[in-house]
Design a protein that fits this description.
The chain is α+β, with helices and mostly antiparallel strands and 825 residues long. Helix content is 36%, strand content 19%. Helix 19 packs across helix 20 and helix 21 packs parallel to helix 23. It binds one RNA strand of 86 nucleotides through helix 7, strand 11, strand 15, helix 11 and strand 30.
Length: 825
RNA sequence: GCCGGAGUGGCGAAACGGUAGACGCAGCGGACUUAAAAUCCGCGGCCCGCGAGGGCGUGCAGGUUCGACUCCUGCCUCCGGCACCA
C-alpha cells in the first residue's frame, strides 16, 4: 500500500458514484421514505467557497447516514436560476443571462462533485427554463381565477438601484434586501398575491411545527403581527361617510382628542378641498409621500403634521375634534387612520404637545389627580376610568376592552376587529430575467388571462439589456404585441415578471415529477413523499421564502392538489462560517465582497475533500456560527492520515491479546454515541468520538494489546461510522478490507448492550460534594458495599475528619457523595 | 424600547442535575534525524507548595439541591430579529 493519497482516491469514487447513480431514487416505492432537502442555490457565478461548503457537506453527511440506516432517502438538487445578478452580468459583460446562468450551473455541479456530494440528478430542476416556469404561470392563473392574485395601484417600495419594486419582506430597515439602496415610495399598478387572507392560518399553523426552530416561528409570528382591537367610525362634520380608524384601545375612545390620517389616506384630497392653504399643504403631503421609507419611518424621524381644518365627531363624547395629517401614521396598517389618545399613547402625546392639542384622561392614576395638562408620560396600564358614565371605576384590562367593543357595536359606531401587520405579497418585478406574468391588456376587454393552452409565455431570448430605466421586455415589441384571447383583437402583453420567490415557493413538489409536461406536479407522489421530512437552509430565509412557501402550500391544498398544509415538517438552520476580513478588519461572514473567502480548490488539491469535510463538520455545532481557522485544518488531515496508517498496520496485531474487552467496550460505546449524535445533528462530537476511537485503536495496534480480529472489527466499525463525513477515504479502506458492496449499502453498526457492561469500575468519592478520591469497586455492589469501601479510603477518612456521615448518595456507575452536614430542620 | 440566543483554558469547543475542560488547534519539553520537515511520546485553567497535597474556578450577585456550566430570580456584556404597527 502507498500512503494516503486523496488525489488518487477521490476522483475514483466520485466516478463510481456517478456511474452507479448512487443517489437515484425510484419514487414509485415510498416504503421507509425520507425526503430531505437543501434550499436550492442561486447559481451566482462566484465560485463556491468553504463557507458555502458547510451547507452541502452537512446535508450530504445526513444523507449518507440516512442511507446507511436503511432509509429510502431522496436528496434532490436544482437551481433557483432567475434573478437580478444574471441580468447585471449581461449588462456589465455582454453575456446573455440564460447562457451565463447555465454556465454557472455547470461549474457549480463540478464543485459539488469534487466535495463528494451525492444528489439525485434525475430530479434536477432549473427554474429559468420554460419547463419549470410555465407552472409558475399556471399557478398564477389559478390564483387569478380564485381572486388570490390581483392588480392594484398602491404606494409601493421602489429600489432606485435595481429599478424595480420590492415586496415588503424585501425591505430591511428601509433598504433594498439585495443591494442596500434606500427604498423610495412610488404609486404604481402592481400584481399582488393575497397572502393576507391566509394570515390566520399561517399563524395558527406555526403551533403545529414542533420540528421548527423556535426562533424562526417567533420571527414569523412577529412578521404576521396579529393584533386584536376595534374599528371605530368617526362622522365627519359636513361630509358624507364616516372615517374609520383601527385601535387596540377602544376603551380609551373618550380620550380621543383628534384624528390623524396617513398622507396617503384616500380622503386627504377631499378634506383639504376647501382649505385656504390647500396648495401648500398638498405640497407638504407630496413631499412626505415621496420620502424614502428609511427617512420617513426611522426612529429618530421628527413627527410632522398639518391640520386639515376638517372636524370629526367623537362617537363617545359627541365632541368635535380636529382631523390632522401626519407622517407618523402608516398608510398600509389598519385603516391608515388613527384616533389620537395623547393621555394613553406616547406617540400621540408627543404630537399633541408639539402641536398644542388637548389631552384628556380616561384612566385616572390613583393619587395623581388633575395632572392631564402637565402629563409628561402617557398613563399606561394603571388608573381607573372616570367621566365615562357606566364605565366609571373600570380598570385597564382585556375585560374593559371587551365591554367597550360591545358598547360600540350596540351603538353602531364600531366593531371588534383583528388586524395583521402582514401585507399582500407584491410579486411584480420590472426586470427581464424572471417568469413573465401571463396576462394581456386588451383595449376593449381589459385584463385577460393567457389561455392555459398558450402556456408557457416564453421569455424572448433576444432583448436589449442596456441597463436603462424600465423593463427591457417592454421594449421587445415582438413580445409585447399580442392577441386578446377573448375578442382576438390587438392586445399588449404584460411585461412585469414574477418575484423569484414564486419559483421557490413550490419547487420541492416539482422535484417529485420534474419532467411531467402535463401538470404542475404529480399529486399522488406529492402526497406520498411530501411534506419534506427535513429541510436545511440558512436563517436568512426565516421569513421571506419560508412564509411564501407555507402560503403557497395552503393554496395548493385548497386547490385540492396536496393533502397537507405545511410543506416542511422539520427545519434546520445551519450557522454561517466566518473569517477575519482584511478589508473590514473584523471577523465576518465569509463572502466574496468582504474578501475573506477560502477556496476549496487549493484545499482539496493539497489535502483532499475528505479533509475539508471532516474539518468543516468538526469546527463546531452545525447550528452555530463558527470561525474558519486555516491552521486547524491540518488536524483533520492528520486524523485521516492516522486512520490510513492504522489500516495498513492492523494486520500485524497478534492473534490473541489481553485488552480485547476494553477495545470492544469502546467500540460499542462509540457506536452508541455516534448514532445518538447523528440523530441530534451533532456532527462535531461525532468526529470527536471517532478520533477517540482511532486513538485507542492506534494504541492497541502499536502496543499489541488487542487481537487482530478485535482490531479489524474496530477498524471496520470506525470506517462505517466515519463514512457520512469522509466518504472517499472510507469507501477506499472498506474496499481494501475486502468488502464488496458500497458502504452506502452496508448496515449501520448496532451497539451491543452486553459489550458495554463491565465487572469493575472506578467510582468517584465526594465528601460534601467535593471530589476526594477514586476507588475501584465491583459493578454489582450496592450502596452498603460502596459506602464501606469508600470509608476504607485514607483520603476520604481524612476529609471526614471524624464527622459522622449523615447521608450517602450513590449515583450508580459514577460517584458516591458522603454528606456530613445534617439537614436543617 | 420589545422579542429571541449566547457568555467555559491562549483559541475552536465538550459535558442525561453527578469527576468541568473530552476531541482538536496553537504552545512547551522529549524521542527519531547530520539537520529540518514529517511522525511518535509527554506536559498543559489560575493561585500556594520542592513535593505529597490544598484552595479557587464555567459573565456578575443571590437562590434551589447531598451535588449546579446545566434549574430559578435579578443584573452586566455581546450577537440576531422587529421597531412611530395605533
Amino acid at each position: 500500500m502507498n500512503g494516503y493519497d486523496p488525489k488518487a482516491i477521490e476522483p475514483k469514487w466520485q466516478e463510481r458514484w456517478d456511474r452507479q447513480r448512487a443517489a437515484e431514487v425510484d419514487l414509485r416505492n415510498d416504503k421507509n421514505k425520507y425526503y430531505m432537502l437543501m434550499m436550492f442555490p442561486y447559481p451566482s457565478g462566484d465560485r463556491l467557497h468553504v463557507g458555502h461548503g458547510r451547507n452541502y457537506i452537512l446535508g450530504d453527511a445526513l444523507y449518507r447516514y440516512l442511507r446507511m440506516r436503511g432509509r429510502r432517502a431522496l436528496n434532490p438538487m436544482g437551481w433557483d436560476a432567475f434573478g437580478l445578478p444574471a441580468e447585471n452580468a449581461a449588462i456589465q459583460r455582454g453575456v446573455h443571462p440564460r447562457d451565463w446562468t447555465l454556465d454557472n450551473i455547470r461549474v457549480m455541479k463540478t464543485q459539488f462533485r469534487r466535495w463528494g456530494i451525492l444528489y439525485d440528478w434525475s430530479k434536477e430542476i432549473t427554474s429559468c427554463l420554460p419547463e419549470y416556469y410555465r407552472w409558475n404561470q399556471w399557478l398564477f392563473l389559478r390564483m387569478l381565477e380564485q381572486g388570490l392574485a390581483y392588480k392594484k395601484k398602491a404606494p409601493v417600495n421602489w429600489c432606485p438601484n435595481d429599478r424595480t419594486v420590492l415586496a415588503n419582506e424585501q425591505v430591511l430597515e428601509g433598504r433594498c434586501e439585495r443591494c442596500g439602496a434606500a427604498v423610495e415610495q412610488r404609486d404604481l399598478e402592481q400584481w399582488f398575491l393575497r397572502i393576507t387572507s391566509y394570515a390566520d392560518r399561517l399563524l395558527a399553523g406555526l403551533d403545529d411545527l414542533p420540528g421548527w426552530p423556535e426562533k424562526v416561528k417567533v420571527m414569523q409570528r412577529n412578521w404576521i403581527g396579529r393584533s386584536e382591537g376595534a374599528e371605530i367610525d368617526f362622522a365627519i362634520v359636513g361630509a358624507e361617510g364616516p372615517l374609520t380608524v383601527f385601535t387596540t384601545r377602544p376603551d380609551t375612545v373618550h380620550g380621543a382628542t383628534f384624528l390623524v390620517l396617513a398622507p396617503e389616506h384616500p380622503r386627504v384630497v377631499e378634506l383639504l378641498a376647501t382649505h385656504p392653504e390647500r396648495a401648500s399643504i398638498e405640497a407638504w403631503v407630496d413631499r412626505i409621500r415621496s420620502t424614502p421609507r428609511i427617512e420617513r419611518e426611522g426612529e429618530g424621524t421628527p413627527k410632522e403634521g398639518r391640520d386639515t381644518g376638517a372636524r370629526a365627531l367623537n362617537p363617545a363624547t359627541g365632541e368635535e375634534i380636529p382631523i390632522w395629517i401626519a407622517n407618523y401614521v402608516l398608510p398600509d396598517y389598519g385603516s391608515g387612520a388613527i384616533m389620537a389618545v395623547p393621555a394613553h399613547d406616547g406617540r400621540d402625546l408627543a404630537f399633541a404637545r408639539q402641536e398644542g392639542l388637548p389631552v384628556r384622561l380616561v384612566y385616572h392614576p390613583e393619587g395623581r389627580d388633575g395632572e392631564a395638562t402637565a402629563l409628561a408620560e402617557p398613563i399606561l396600564g394603571e388608573g381607573v376610568i372616570r367621566g365615562c358614565g357606566d364605565f366609571d371605576g373600570a380598570t385597564d384590562g382585556p375585560e374593559t376592552i371587551r365591554r367597550f367593543i360591545a358598547w360600540l357595536e350596540e351603538r353602531g359606531s364600531g366593531r371588534g376587529k383583528v388586524t395583521y401587520r402582514l401585507r399582500d405579497w407584491l410579486i411584480s418585478r420590472q426586470r427581464y430575467w424572471g417568469t413573465p406574468i401571463p396576462v394581456v391588456y386588451c383595449e376593449s376587454c381589459g385584463i385577460q388571462s393567457v389561455a392555459a393552452t398558450e402556456l408557457p409565455v416564453e421569455l424572448p431570448y433576444d432583448v436589449e439589456l442596456s441597463g436603462r430605466e424600465g423593463n427591457p421586455l417592454s421594449r421587445a415589441s415582438a413580445f409585447v404585441a399580442a392577441r386578446c384571447p377573448r375578442c382576438g383583437g390587438e392586445a399588449r402583453r404584460e411585461t412585469d415578471t414574477m418575484d423569484t420567490f414564486v419559483d421557490s415557493s413550490w419547487y420541492y413538489l416539482r422535484y417529485l415529477s420534474p419532467k411531467d409536461g402535463g401538470r404542475v406536479f404529480d399529486s399522488q407522489l406529492a402526497n406520498r413523499w411530501a411534506p419534506v421530512d427535513q429541510y436545511i437552509g440558512g436563517i436568512e430565509h426565516a421569513i421571506l421564502h419560508l412564509l411564501y412557501a407555507r402560503f403557497v402550500c395552503r393554496v395548493l391544498h385548497d386547490f385540492g392538489l396536496v393533502e397537507f398544509e405545511e410543506p416542511f415538517a422539520n427545519l434546520f438552520n445551519q450557522g454561517m462560517i466566518t473569517r477575519f476580513s482584511e478589508k473590514t478588519g473584523r471577523i465576518e461572514k465569509m463572502s466574496k465582497s468582504r474578501g475573506n473567502t477560502v477556496s476549496p480548490d487549493a484545499l482539496i488539491e493539497e489535502m483532499g475533500a475528505d479533509t475539508e469535510r471532516v474539518y468543516t463538520l468538526f469546527l463546531g455545532p452545525p447550528e452555530d456560527e463558527v470561525e474558519w481557522n486555516d491552521e486547524a485544518v491540518s488536524g483533520a488531515h492528520r486524523f485521516l492520515q492516522r486512520l490510513w496508517r492504522v489500516a495498513e498496520r492492523v494486520g500485524s496485531a497478534p492473534p490473541t491479546a489481553p485488552a480485547d474487552a476494553a477495545l470492544e467496550r469502546l467500540r460499542h460505546a462509540t457506536i452508541q454515541r455516534v448514532t445518538r449524535d447523528f440523530e441530534r445533528f451533532k456532527f462535531n462530537t461525532v468526529v470527536a468520538a471517532l478520533m477517540e476511537l482511532l486513538n485507542a485503536l492506534t494504541r492497541a495496534v502499536e502496543e499489541k494489546t488487542a487481537s487482530r480480529l478485535c482490531c479489524e472489527a474496530t477498524l471496520d466499525t470506525l470506517v462505517q461510522l466515519l463514512h457520512p463525513i469522509a466518504p472517499h477515504l472510507t469507501e477506499e479502506l472498506w474496499e481494501r478490507r475486502g468488502h464488496v458492496e458500497s458502504l452506502l449499502d452496508s448496515d449501520w453498526p448496532v451497539a451491543d448492550e452486553a459489550k458495554l457492561k463491565r465487572d469493575r469500575l472506578t467510582l468517584v468519592i465526594q465528601v460534601d460534594g467535593k471530589l476526594r478520591d477514586r476507588i475501584e469497586v465491583d459493578a454489582a455492589w450496592g450502596e452498603r458495599e460502596v459506602r464501606a469501601a469508600a470509608l476504607g479510603s485514607v483520603k476520604v477518612r481524612e476529609h471526614l475528619g471524624g464527622r459522622e456521615v449523615a447521608k450517602a448518595v450513590l449515583v450508580p456507575g459514577r460517584l458516591m457523595n458522603l454528606v456530613t452536614r445534617r439537614e436543617v430542620s
